[in-house]
Design goal:
Number of strands: 8
Number of helices: 4
Order of helices and strands: EHEEEEHEHEHE
Oligomer: single chain
Shape: globular
Largest sheet: 6 strands, parallel
Strand content: 15-25%
Structural class: alpha/beta
Strand order of the largest sheet: 5-2-1-6-7-8
Bound molecules: pyrazine-2-carboxylic acid, zinc ion
């Protein structure tokens, strides 16, 4: 019955000045650092795309960032180039405490995006995180980080569906909020049994 904190994508590109800056993204660092001590395990996720990734608008001639396209696995939002492997934009925000137990990278397959820390956007390719948590006897998860309405929400929803007891600490998250995506994500998380803490 152990409890883990999952710190989602607190990377330079999602903070002010970054390629896909989330408003107030840097504000999550202090509350996240402050809560780490309370958990049996701390896991960080890191968005980690190869150059030319299929989720980048620049890989789709004629498309602009924040438009959508149809992939084999469904509708995909197209993003500005971000979190390219090994770049400063993909690095964790400098003041974030990164001395956690595990870093799980995601979005590294060229043809599939991965918002969730558990499954890629095809909903079936596993990152291995579930097995890690179960092997360590972790049953409760608290999520914080970026962005509330994409990577945090997708991770929370997968976790709840897998049977973990999931809390999202909203004060330690910030949203992109694209066409009502924040409200939709909050509603879906609530209906799937995710505890929303503010
Ligand atoms: C994210 C869009 C694209 C996120 C990652 O971390 O929420 N959003 N890649
Ligand atoms: Zn991404």
């Amino acid at each position: 019955m152990f409890q883990a904190l999952i710190v989602v994508d607190v990377q330079n590109d999602f903070c002010p000045g970054g390629a896909l800056a989330v408003p107030g993204g840097d504000k999550v660092v202090a509350p996240i650092n402050a809560m780490m001590d309370r958990f049996d395990a701390v896991i960080l996720t890191q968005d980690w795309h190869p150059a030319g990734h299929s989720s980048f608008a620049s890989s789709h001639p004629g498309k602009d960032p924040f438009e959508t396209t149809e992939m084999t696995y469904g509708t995909q939002v197209l993003w500005p180039d971000h979190c390219v492997q090994g770049t400063e934009g993909a690095a964790f925000r400098q003041d974030l405490h990164t001395d956690g137990d595990l870093i799980i990278r995601k979005g590294f397959r060229p043809g599939i995006d991965s918002y969730s820390g558990f499954f890629e956007n095809d909903q079936s390719t596993s990152t291995g995180l579930e097995g890690y948590l179960r092997s360590r006897g972790i049953t409760g998860l608290t999520l914080a980080g970026l962005a509330t309405d994409f990577c945090v929400a997708f991770t929370a929803l997968d976790a709840a569906r897998l049977g973990f007891d999931v809390t999202v600490d909203l004060a330690a998250c910030r949203a992109i909020d694209l066409n009502g995506s924040l409200q939709a994500a909050l509603k879906e998380m609530a209906s799937e049994g995710v505890n929303l803490q503010s």
